[in-house]
Each structure stands twice: as C-alpha cells, then as structure tokens.
Design goal:
The chain is mostly beta strands and about 300 residues long. About 10% of the residues lie in helices and about 40% in strands. It has four helices and 21 strands. Strand 11 and strand 12 form a beta hairpin. The longest helix has 9 residues.
C-alpha cells in the first residue's frame, strides 16, 4: 500500500496575524536529515506518496538526489547565536538589527565510511530537511508554491576517529539564518521514513585479464568491499546495469551477454587487442529497476585488452 502525506502545520509567517493556538506544531526528537541540492525544488503533488518519492530521489541523478543520513544517530544539539544589536545613545535603548542564527549539530555513529562521505559537503551550498522520530519533516515553502530544503549559510563536517568503546563519530554542523524558518511547512508521513538509507558507493573492478571476447569484472562496495555478485548472483548479471565505451574513440561498445562465472561477471562481446575500455555502472535508478536497491556504481574502471 502506498504511503500517504499529512500536513500538520503551515507555519509560514504572514503580514497580518492572529494568535489562536491549535496545539504544538513542532518537530520532536531528532532522527536525522536528508541533504538536498540548493537549487532543487518539488511540489506537494510530487510528495503524495512520500516513501516512493524519497526513494526515487535517492536513486535520481546528482542534481536531484536526496542523501538521507538517519542510521546510527547518536546526538543532536541546538544553539542560537547572539542577536546583532545597535545602541541608540540618545534614547539609551538598543534594537535588534539581525536575529542570531541557529546552529544544529548532528552526530552519527557511522564510522569512517560515513565520515568520509560527509566531508564532501564541507563548505558547499547544500540544503537539508530535518526529520524527527515520528517521520515529521520541515520544508522551506517557496513563493511560487514549490518546496525545497532549509537553507544553511555554512556546513561544517568533521569526525572523531578515536572513540573508545564505540565507532567513529561523524559530526555535521548546520548554521541557518533565523529568518529562514518563517517560511516553512511541517509535514508528516503515515509510515516510517527514517529507515531509508542513502546510496552506497560501488566500485567495478578488473577481476581478471581481458580477452578479445570477454571483459571480466568484479562489483564491490567502495568502503567495506562487500561483494555484490555474491549478494545478488542473479539480478547483477544483466546487461542493462553496465556501460562499456572505447576510451580512444568514445564509442559505446554493447556486450552481447553478461553472466556470473566463478564469482565474477563476464561481459561477452567483441573487443580489440591493445584497446582500453571503460566500464561503468548504469544510473542508480536502473539498478533499482533491476531490484538492486541503494547503490551507485557509476565510478568507472579502465580495462585494457
């Protein structure tokens, strides 16, 4: 059954306002975030089935890819910087010229694998979607009616690799201008979204010497070297999952067959002695369609015949 979207609160600031209270509209216990591109937008209709929408965006191209970080959350902290003020020496008063920004610090027990990936967002212009343990999440409501992640003026990533009795701690610090929270809408899903995982990077490797009829490859996760051929022995032997090009000419070379032989994948085709071929995985969405969920195998390998 498809998941459904609930809209608990529209907390957008209005020019005119009333003060009636309909309950406490707020995020609860922090469960993690989804990192999104700063230019990415979507509609409420897109989110009608939030579980399917987020899963599709996790496997989308890099410009629209969602990168959830839920697993292993260890700690969450919040702080508000001091307001910027200006003194009026004549009246003896001060006024706030800029409200202090908000700082959110998330800590995960994701080990060095996660720490290395989060380092890629350091100083970049990503946005984020905060989630709580009840699958509530907060989105920026744009003037054109679309939605986007919350803006962060600065993202700092670091980690503690030496944590006695535990795994390495990955730390992400998000600094957000206070006014960015006055155009927001709080949503809730009727299913648990916090069990979704981001893509795992995959390496396609040369597993044996190539011949004029076969390229022989292995497929393993980048960090822990998990053998995906052993994990998906049937689904992974599909020609749709691999793209082969001639490095010198750039021409696509289409294999005629893919088969698992001796724990390796043989891509049968016509190859030329002395030529180098680039083998890469198809888009994550193609792997998902072939029932291999949660992997990005687009890191290329060069194989010379």
């Amino acid at each position: 059954m498809a998941s459904a979207l609930i809209t608990p609160c529209d907390v957008t600031e209005e020019e005119s306002f009333n003060t009636g209270i309909e309950g406490n509209c707020a995020l609860g216990v922090a469960a993690g975030i989804i990192i999104v591109n700063s230019t990415d937008t979507w509609t409420k209709a897109d989110m009608a089935d939030p579980d399917a929408f987020i899963k599709a965006r996790i496997h989308a191209g890099t410009s629209q890819r969602f990168r959830p970080v839920f697993q292993g959350i260890f700690d969450f902290a919040y702080a508000k910087e001091s307001d910027q003020t200006e003194a009026n020496p004549i009246k003896g008063t001060t006024r706030v010229t800029r409200p202090g920004g908000l700082t959110f610090t998330y800590t995960w027990e994701g080990g060095l694998c996660l720490a290395g990936r989060l380092a890629a967002v350091q100083g970049k212009s990503y946005r984020y979607i905060p989630f709580d343990s009840d699958s509530q999440f907060l989105l920026n409501k744009n003037l054109d009616g679309t939605y986007s992640g919350l803006e962060s003026s600065d993202i700092t990533a670091n980690y503690n690799p030496f944590t006695p009795g535990s795994s390495a701690k990955s730390i992400l610090v998000l600094n957000t201008p206070y006014k960015k929270y006055v155009r927001a809408e709080l949503f809730k899903a009727n299913v648990d979204l916090t069990d979704l995982n981001g893509l795992i990077d995959v390496d396609i490797i040369k597993a044996a010497a190539a011949t004029t009829t076969k390229l022989i490859i292995g497929v393993q996760t980048q960090c822990k070297k998990t053998d995906l051929i052993a994990k998906y022995p049937t689904a992974i032997a599909d020609l749709d999952l691999y793209i082969v090009t001639n490095k010198a000419t750039g021409a696509v070379v289409t294999p005629t067959a893919a088969a698992v032989v001796g724990g390796r994948i043989e891509l049968t085709g016509t190859y030329v002695t002395g030529q180098t071929y680039i083998v890469t995985g198809s888009a994550p969405s193609v792997w998902l369609a072939n029932l291999i969920e949660g992997y990005d195998a687009t890191n290329p390998v060069e194989i010379t015949v």
